[in-house]
Task: inverse folding
């Protein structure tokens, strides 16, 4: 009986045994799978943790850099430029303007009565070379008397660069023309003009070229371009394709192609044009019209006059910010500096800076305006955002031109009356230190000016 029951139970036990084995195998597989998943989870967790740590580190680095930048900006906001005279150099007679090459290596003094252009090494503060024009009798202009006088044609006034400083364009006051100087002295204008198919005219103007302080001259030829009567300020479009020239007495703008050196057009404007500024896109030009107290707005693509905008009495020089939103204009007669909003075409601010402000320029970061005052023998430094005066710097007699090096570390000013160049170093100092220094200087000056009281002596009886 028992054996019979065992026979019945044997298949069941066998089945249970097989099931147990299968269950054990499945459990082992599940355990292995679970271990694998746990391992994967650990790897993923480690990778996620590392990525999170990397993200946190990157965020901390970014925040630290941003905090450092803000601290630097905050510190910079409390610093203002203080000018320190580095050197005064004699130049040729009556310099009218000065420009510094885009690479900051060379400064060019444009000497009206000396009838010359002097090139200076900016780093060494020494004369590199100079050219002197041969005099040709011509009619000039006496600005005080307001009449024509006997003079010479080759009197240089203003200058501008094209081709990243390779070519220096110089206006000749009484000649009704411009000359183009190859600053590298490598271009053979004559050879270029003679190439088949060349549209470049041959050079026609002889000048004397000197190396440094040498008295030994070499005669070279310069390219000249005829423009209007009494050309003054020259400006190139941002892409260097076109040059505008303001013709004082013919009341016009000459438009010159910089590749062919041909005058494309002469545009009539209102009385006495002088300063020129292009917007960064090169589409618009603003010309200071001294005779009508206005800016002439021109389409620089079609070279047509768009409108006239009043800005104040006798606007002389004009510059445009890199974003194209603001113009700064010097007003000669009232001694003011104007801030002009390009979008609204209105004067947003006017401040008095001194007697007869002439040329003005911006610091490379456009935070400050430098403007020379002809009759005050000084240069004003103003905050470009607020037009608050930061300070004044004495110059030579009758400063008329000013330029800043591309790194903003030096300011060069030419003095018409003393025929000198002042070179100033720019040092950024805190406003508190500058204010204290200015107060001390004012106090010292007042002590010098105040006469000592006379001592009262008792009379002998």
Result:
């Amino acid at each position: 009986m028992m054996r019979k029951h065992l026979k019945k139970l044997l298949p069941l036990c066998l089945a249970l045994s097989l099931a147990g084995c299968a269950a054990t195998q499945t459990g082992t597989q599940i355990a292995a799978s679970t271990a694998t998943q746990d391992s994967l989870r650990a790897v993923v967790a480690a990778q996620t943790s590392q990525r999170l740590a990397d993200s946190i580190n990157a965020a901390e680095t970014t925040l630290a850099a941003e905090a450092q930048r803000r601290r630097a900006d905050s510190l910079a906001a409390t610093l203002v430029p203080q000018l320190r005279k580095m050197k005064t150099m004699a130049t040729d007679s009556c310099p009218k303007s000065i420009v510094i090459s885009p690479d900051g290596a060379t400064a060019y003094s444009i000497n009206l009565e000396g009838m010359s252009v002097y090139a200076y090494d900016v780093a060494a503060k020494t004369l590199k070379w100079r050219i002197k024009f041969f005099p040709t009798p011509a009619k000039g202009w006496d600005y005080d008397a307001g009449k024509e006088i006997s003079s010479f044609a080759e009197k240089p006034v203003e200058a501008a660069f094209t081709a990243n400083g390779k070519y220096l364009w110089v206006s000749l006051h009484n000649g009704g023309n411009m000359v183009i100087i190859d600053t590298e002295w490598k271009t053979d204008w004559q050879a270029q003009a003679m190439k088949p198919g060349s549209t470049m005219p041959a050079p026609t103007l002889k000048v004397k070229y000197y190396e440094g302080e040498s008295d030994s001259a070499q005669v070279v030829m310069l390219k000249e371009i005829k423009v209007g009567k009494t050309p003054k300020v020259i400006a190139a479009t941002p892409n260097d394709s076109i040059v505008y020239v303001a013709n004082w007495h013919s009341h016009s703008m000459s438009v010159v192609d910089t590749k062919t050196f041909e005058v494309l057009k002469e545009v009539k404007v209102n009385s006495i044009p002088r300063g020129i500024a292009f917007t960064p896109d090169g589409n618009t030009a603003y010309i200071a019209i001294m005779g009508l107290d206005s800016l002439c707005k021109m389409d620089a693509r079609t070279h047509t006059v768009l409108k006239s905008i009043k800005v104040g009495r006798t606007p002389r020089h004009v510059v445009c910010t890199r974003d194209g939103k603001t113009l700064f204009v010097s007003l000669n007669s009232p001694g003011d500096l104007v801030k002009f909003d390009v979008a609204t075409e209105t004067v947003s601010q006017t401040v008095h800076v001194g007697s007869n402000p002439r040329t003005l320029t911006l610091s490379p970061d456009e935070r400050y305006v430098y403007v020379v005052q002809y009759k005050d023998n000084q240069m004003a430094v103003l905050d470009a955002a607020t037009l608050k005066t930061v300070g004044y710097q004495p110059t030579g007699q009758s400063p008329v031109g000013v330029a800043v090096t591309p790194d903003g570390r030096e300011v060069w000013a030419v003095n018409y009356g003393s025929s000198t160049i002042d070179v100033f170093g720019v040092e950024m100092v805190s406003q508190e230190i500058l204010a204290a220094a200015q107060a001390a200087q004012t106090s010292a000056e007042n002590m010098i000016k105040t006469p000592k009281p006379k001592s009262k002596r008792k009379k002998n009886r």
